[in-house]
Write a structure and sequence with these properties.
- It is a single chain.
- This protein is an alpha/beta fold.
- Helices cover 39% and strands 23% of the residues.
- The chain is built from 4 helices and 5 strands, in the order αβββαβαβα.
- α1 crosses α4 and α2 packs across α3.
- It is globular.
- The model has no long low-confidence stretch (mean pLDDT 83).
Length: 142
């Protein structure tokens, strides 16, 4: 599936943030299982997957179901990171989907989900805005 400049920027930003936060060399960072995740971070000590993530930008609310199912079904992770475009309809759909997991065995896995909402008018081509978004994500993620 083709991605947008914003999607690519946000996924790359998450990887860069994880890299800069792991100066100890404890974490390794890769793009992850490309067809499954947009980014991931592995623990070098035993190569277990610590963080996996998805970026929701261009595709609509239907992508939320798949993204959350993928994130929540992944076993042996400490955190599932979701970076998403901040729009009312997407937040509403996100709430619907997460509510549907409350009555399932996946309920406990919701606690490891971290969502970072990015303003819908974000344009990766604007360097000042990109830097601001990067800094905001860095502060929130770390």
């Amino acid at each position: 599936m083709p991605t947008s400049a914003e999607h690519d920027f946000l996924s790359t930003a998450a990887l860069r943030i994880m890299e800069s936060a792991s100066n100890s060399g404890l974490f390794g960072y890769t793009e992850g299982q490309r067809k499954l995740f947009d980014f991931s971070c592995d623990l070098k000590q035993d190569w277990s997957k610590v963080i996996v993530g998805q970026t929701l930008w261009k595709h609509g609310g239907d992508g939320i179901d798949k993204d959350l199912r993928t994130l929540l079904n992944e076993r042996d992770i400490a955190a599932a990171v979701y970076i998403a475009r901040h729009e009312s309809k997407l937040r509403s759909r996100f709430a619907e989907v997460t509510q549907s997991y409350l009555d399932t065995p996946m309920r406990d896995r919701l606690s490891r989900l971290r969502v970072f909402w990015v303003p819908a008018d974000f344009k990766a081509t604007d360097e000042n805005i990109s830097e601001s978004i990067y800094n905001a994500l860095k502060e929130e993620i770390t």
